[in-house]
Amino acid sequence: MRLLVREDHRLPLVGIGAVFRGGLLAETPQDNGITRLMAKVLLKGTKTRAAEQIANEIEAVGGSISSDPGNNSFSVSVDVMKPDVKLGLDLLSDVLLNATF
């Protein structure tokens, strides 16, 4: 695992992302499109939160959560204000560890 940190104290914003190897180049003809599908359904709910609850919690603090398929990777990320880092990490870990798809 590699941790990358880039500090910029001009604004009280925190962006946290988890990036994994995979993506389009790792797909075969039999599973073509699976990365895009996974990226879409990751935010559709977890064992403890429905999709609407995830959206409501992150939007209540003015943050955002997203998942993105790529050619060589896929990622899930959250952006929150500094006081809401705990919530951002909680949502990110819940989506990654407890997705219901």
User: What number is the mean pLDDT?
Assistant: 93
Name given to the CATH homologous superfamily: Metalloenzyme, LuxS/M16 peptidase-like
Basic shape: globular
What characterizes the major β-sheet? 3 strands, antiparallel
Which fold name is given in CATH as the topology?
A: Cytochrome Bc1 Complex, Chain A, domain 1
Taking Cα atoms only, what radius of gyration do you get, to the nearest Å? 14 Å
CATH top level assignment: Alpha Beta
Structural class: alpha+beta
One letter per element, helices H and strands E, the order comes to EHHEEH
User: What is the helix fraction of residues, given as a range?
Assistant: 25-40%
Q: Compute the number of helices.
A: 3
Widest sheet: strand ordering: 1-3-2
Q: How many β-strand runs? A: 3
- Determine the N-to-C terminus distance: 25 Å
Give the low-confidence spans.
Answer: none
What's the domain count?
1
Q: What is the second-level CATH architecture?
A: 2-Layer Sandwich
Strand content: 15-25%
Give structural notes.
This protein has 101 residues and is of the alpha+beta class. The protein has a single domain (13-98), classed as 2-Layer Sandwich (Cytochrome Bc1 Complex, Chain A, domain 1). It has three helices and three strands, in the order βααββα. The protein has helices at residues 34-41, 51-60, 85-98, and strands at 13-21, 64-69, 73-81. The two termini are 25 Å apart.
